[in-house]
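Retry 2 of 3 after timeout on previous attempt. Resubmitting structure tokens to design endpoint.
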């Protein structure tokens, strides 16, 4: 499973903020209930911070490639050197 997902809302009790990037660990489907997922959030070195089970509506798919780690999903920024003459 291990697909990248982006948290769509804050979960302050877990120290997570909207925009944090995680990886799907497991899908939970129980008849009559909303689909849920266990999601692993980790630091930039790959150390697990927390694994949280949440409803599908807490997550969104990335719109571009994102690296793992608890970080905000941001578009790439390209710096251009514009020397003055």
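Retry 2 succeeded. Sequence:
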């Amino acid at each position: 499973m291990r697909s990248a997902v982006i948290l769509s809302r804050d979960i302050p009790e877990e120290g997570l903020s909207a925009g944090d990037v995680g990886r799907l660990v497991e899908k939970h489907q129980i008849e009559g209930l909303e689909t849920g997922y266990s999601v692993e959030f980790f630091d930039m070195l790959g150390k697990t911070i927390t694994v949280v089970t949440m409803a599908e509506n807490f997550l969104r798919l990335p719109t571009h490639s994102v690296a793992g780690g608890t970080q905000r999903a941001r578009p790439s920024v390209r710096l251009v050197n514009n020397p003055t003459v």
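Attempt log closed. Strands lie at 4-7, 21-28, 36-42, 48-55, 59-60.
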